[in-house]
Design goal:
Elements: H1 2-55, H2 65-74, H3 76-88
Helix pairs in contact: 1-2, 2-3
């Protein structure tokens, strides 16, 4: 009887550990899309502010999915790169 209880406890521990590992992996996989979305939104806001300032100097960058992702992923250096790229076009 004691061996049966010990084997059941070991199974419960193993199932619990596997469940925690699966939960951790699911949360890790879901974190990346939300991070990209939030960074993209912040990139659009940063581009909008930069366009307001850049309009005084005659330099603007169109806000679309590609420029928002570049600004969102790279942050301020991405916005600077977009404006430098716009100067050469």
């Amino acid at each position: 009887m004691e061996n049966l209880l010990q084997s059941q406890n070991i199974k419960l521990i193993i199932y619990g550990a596997v469940g925690l590992i699966v939960l951790y992996l699911i949360l890790k996989l879901l974190k990346l899309p939300f991070k990209i979305l939030i960074n993209g939104i912040l990139g659009v806001v940063l581009l909008y502010i930069a366009n307001l300032i850049g309009a005084n100097f005659g330099i603007t960058v169109g806000i679309n999915v590609v420029t928002a992702l570049i600004a969102g992923i790279l942050g301020i250096p991405g916005v600077i790169a977009l404006f430098i790229f716009q100067l050469f076009i």
